[in-house]
Known about the structure:
Blueprint: E1 2-6, H1 15-28, E2 33-37, H2 43-50, E3 58-60, H3 66-73, E4 79-83, H4 89-98, E5 101-106, H5 110-115, H6 117-130, E6 135-140, H7 151-158, H8 174-180, H9 193-207
Parallel strand pairs: 1-4, 1-5, 2-3, 2-4, 5-6
Helix pairs in contact: 1-9, 3-4, 4-6
Bound molecules: adenosine-5'-diphosphate and magnesium ion (MG).
Amino acid sequence: AHVIAVLNQKGGSGKTTIATNLAHALKLADAKVLLVDSDPQGSARDWNEANGGQLLPVVGLDRETLATDLKAIMGGYDFVVIDGAPQVARLAAAAVKSADVVLIPVQPSPYDIWAAADLVEVIKARQEITNGKPAAAFLISRAIKNTKLSGEVAEALEGYGFPILAHGTTQRVIYPTSAASGQTVFSESGNPAIEEIEAIAKDVLELLP
Ligand code: ADP
Ligand code: MG
């Protein structure tokens, strides 16, 4: 299975939103997808409970043994999407170890970008001992529609040396409202958020080794 980890130690950056929607997009493209909830708060598990476990298999792996535990259960899946935990550095390191691709959702604000510094270091340290695995990219989360990424924000991100995914999410009510019933943006056909998520999924597939 390809492992995609959605990580950022900053809470509220959009990890669970991206992880659930991306996982669903991959499933709708006919892949077998496992969603891993590495957040001890269990948001993805709550989301899964809210839909009666109907959309995706979701498993909680919120200990440092994540990398080993995941190996034991990921056979048979095409993709594993890991929803990252806030603030738990050792969990993030375990997820980085498991990942083929790390997505780092950041809101286009300097605070979010500065807060990613530690994670970037963890990823780079891992890349050095593995010949570049995992690939990593920033994903701009909750951008205001029709607003260009400011030069300052783009510059701050580029300073980390990882690419910025061509597509991200914009601020839309469908993200929280669909999540409230354990759904994703795909629950409302024709909603423009579907195109955002599909574009993100396509970008991510291109990052896979
Ligand atoms: P994290 O998992 O990083 O803590 P969440 O995915 O839970 O972040 O997002 C934090 C809050 O922001 C949630 O209430 C979520 O519904 C909301 N949110 C996330 N992305 C968007 C978006 N693109 N538009 C509107 N609300 C969003
Ligand atoms: Mg979360």
